[in-house]
Write a structure and sequence with these properties.
The structure holds two protein chains of two kinds. By secondary structure, chain A is mainly alpha-helical. Chain A contains five helices and four strands, in the order βαββαβααα. Chain B is mostly helical. Chain B has 15 helices and two strands. Classes of the chains: A mainly alpha, B mainly alpha.
């Protein structure tokens, strides 16, 4: 269960740290005026300042007791959280696996896992769909559009 | 009246069976590439460009312009049905189009969008025909300060008129600016905000941003509420289509205002994106039902769509008369016409 207040906090801290990163990074490009005009870091620097300031405001406002009627105390219930995790966790693992296994093996495994485990489809059916997905990706991208998709370290090590 | 007779002469060339067939093919292809969220109008038109190489110049222009309009409209279809805009200029259409489609009125939403798009494009065409030489002078006078003013107005109207807390809108806008600043700066050529990651030198592409912000966000919301895909089914009921188009004249003021905004932004190369956002913001401000915007208001669809297509069409004007494309898609098309 995640409360609305925790969500507001987390969002404000997230956007705030993004803003801090933007400010620090833009200092490398120089802020202010030089002989060439405005330095390239000035605009990102200012946007970073705006992000940090706005995030601080949201942080403080989120900490205060409910100020508007739209403030519901609970934002995400535990049931909803489990559903979200069911989508998000396999997808994150899939993306993490792409550099290692390459997109074809990773997507076959992903489709197989998503079909076989939560949906309780038969193993044979899942394998067929998984193989078809990889094949379709290969035909459409590598053959028809001539776009190279990531092959991954493993396939590279095997010599493809 | 010289212009008028030339326009009619143009129609006699365009309305022949092979050319009409080309138009149908072009619009269908355009809608196809516009609907695919990854492709978008500029990429789609450049993909289809080789098709025109073997053609007569007139046929090539007809095919290219049909694809251009098809692609512009295709972007709105995904905005309304899936809440995933196919291109930047149809982002504003999602605000009211998607709520209306979810409300069980996808046909009305699509028909309204299509009707307003047609009206906007028509106004653009009329403008191109009659004002070409005069407008060309105005467009030439449009420089960086004017660009800044136009975009500033569009963004400021968004902060002021948005439904959410203004500070949150400001933070979101600033994050957008920061993301757009990643990569090589177009003015100085220096590399910004990459944190030493080589992939970021090219910047963050629109496709990635849209898939992350709209696509995955929409998926997560759908999963949170119920575990089945919530793409709205769109069975077409023709009575509803004609009903929606027939109700358009009731929103005549919004139509005319949005067409004017769109034409202005298209000629002065502000582009369809700024036009649709600004038109939506202004409609929200002036409409009597402004506070219902965002829940599936008809005017909330009419305004961005009309402006988007009026701008898209009049963006062809600086291209044809000055050689300055008003939008990315127009730039690709110009490449096609030069060959």
């Amino acid at each position: 269960m995640i409360s609305r207040r925790a969500l507001e906090f987390a969002t404000a801290i997230l956007t705030g740290s993004f803003g801090v990163a933007v400010v620090i990074q833009s200092l490398d490009n120089g802020i202010g005026w030089s002989s060439a005009g405005v330095d390239p870091g000035t605009f990102p620097f200012l946007t970073g300042i705006v992000i940090v300031a706005g995030s601080l405001y949201n942080l403080v406002r989120g900490a205060l007791p409910a100020m508007s009627p739209a403030n519901v105390p609970i934002a995400i219930t535990s049931v909803e959280l489990r559903r979200l995790a069911g989508l998000f966790v396999p997808a994150a693992i899939f993306v993490a696996a792409i550099p290692l296994l390459g997109i074809y093996i990773a997507s076959a495994l992903y489709v197989f896992a998503v079909l076989a485990i939560p949906q309780h489809r038969s193993i044979l059916w899942s394998i067929a769909i998984a193989a078809a997905t990889s094949l379709a990706l290969y035909v459409v991208f590598e053959r028809m559009f001539q776009v190279e998709l990531p092959h991954g370290w493993l396939t590279a090590a095997l010599g493809f | 009246m010289d212009n008028l007779s030339e326009l009619l002469h143009g129609f006699t060339i365009a309305i022949t069976v092979p050319h009409l067939a080309l138009m149908v093919i072009g619009v269908l292809l355009g809608i196809l590439v516009g609907v695919l969220p990854g492709l978008g109008a500029p990429n789609g038109v450049s993909l289809l460009l080789p098709l025109t190489f073997g053609m007569q110049p007139v046929s090539a222009i007809i095919l290219l312009s049909s694809m251009y309009w098809g692609a512009l409209f295709g972007g709105s279809v995904t905005s309304i049905l899936f809440n995933i805009p196919g291109e930047p200029s149809s982002v504003a259409t999602t605000f009211d189009g998607y709520p209306m489609a979810r409300d069980g009125r996808p046909t009305t939403a699509l028909a309204t969008a299509f009707g307003s798009a047609a009206f906007g494009a028509l106004v653009g065409v009329i403008l191109i025909t009659f004002l070409a030489s005069w407008v060309a002078q105005v467009a030439l006078a449009f420089g960086p300060p004017e660009y800044f003013a136009v975009y500033f107005l569009a963004f400021a109207s968004f902060v002021g008129m948005g439904g959410a807390a203004p500070i949150k809108t400001v933070v979101a806008l600033a994050i957008g600016f920061a993301i757009a600043a990643i990569g090589i700066d177009t003015v100085s050529g220096s590399v910004r905000l990459t944190m030493g990651i080589d992939e970021l030198v090219k910047g963050v592409s629109f496709v990635v941003a849209v898939m992350g912000l709209f696509g995955i966000g929409e998926l997560l919301v759908a999963v949170e509420e119920e575990f089945h895909a919530r793409a709205v089914s769109s069975r077409i009921d023709w009575r509803e289509v004609f009903g929606a188009v027939g109700r358009l004249p009731r929103h005549g003021v919004a139509l005319l205002r949005s067409a004017a905004i769109g034409c202005w932004m298209g000629i002065t190369p502000g582009g369809p994106t700024a036009a649709s956002f600004m038109s939506y913001g202004i409609a929200r401000r002036f409409s009597r039902r402004g506070r219902y915007f965002g829940t599936g208001e008809v005017e909330g669809i009419i305004s961005p769509e009309t402006a988007d297509h009026a701008a898209g069409t009049s963006a062809l004007l600086p291209m044809l008369s000055l050689g300055i494309p008003g939008s990315a898609t127009a730039a690709v098309m110009m490449g096609g016409l030069m060959i």
